[in-house]
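Backbone-to-sequence.
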């Protein structure tokens, strides 16, 4: 079966990260050990209401469920754009419930700008 319409679709985390980097998005929002969400190379601590999720990409490993990951394109109230990356399934990058609760509380503003 010919699936030519999907030949250009990005299917790996590294492909999406490279494309985002080409658009100037290469820094990460990360939760530290104190359960504070910070933008890479910044000391600002964010609340979920100060962020918006613009796009969500999910990746599933073909041969290993441990290869499953999700990448969120995120924008803060000042217009800074970055990403949140997390593995999902049995092993998350962030232990405990704080990270999951934080993510659930971020408003979602899906943007067609990141449909590639």
């Amino acid at each position: 079966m010919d699936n030519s319409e999907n030949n250009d679709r990005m299917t790996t985390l590294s492909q999406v990260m490279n494309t985002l980097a080409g658009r100037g998005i290469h820094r990460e929002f990360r939760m530290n050990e104190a359960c504070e969400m910070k933008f890479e190379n910044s000391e600002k601590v964010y609340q979920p209401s100060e962020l918006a999720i613009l796009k969500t990409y999910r990746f599933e490993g073909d041969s290993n469920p441990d290869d499953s990951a999700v990448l969120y394109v995120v924008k803060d109230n000042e217009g800074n754009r970055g990403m949140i990356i997390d593995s999902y399934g049995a092993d998350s990058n962030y232990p405990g419930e704080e990270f999951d609760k934080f993510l659930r509380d971020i408003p979602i503003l899906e943007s067609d700008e990141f449909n590639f």
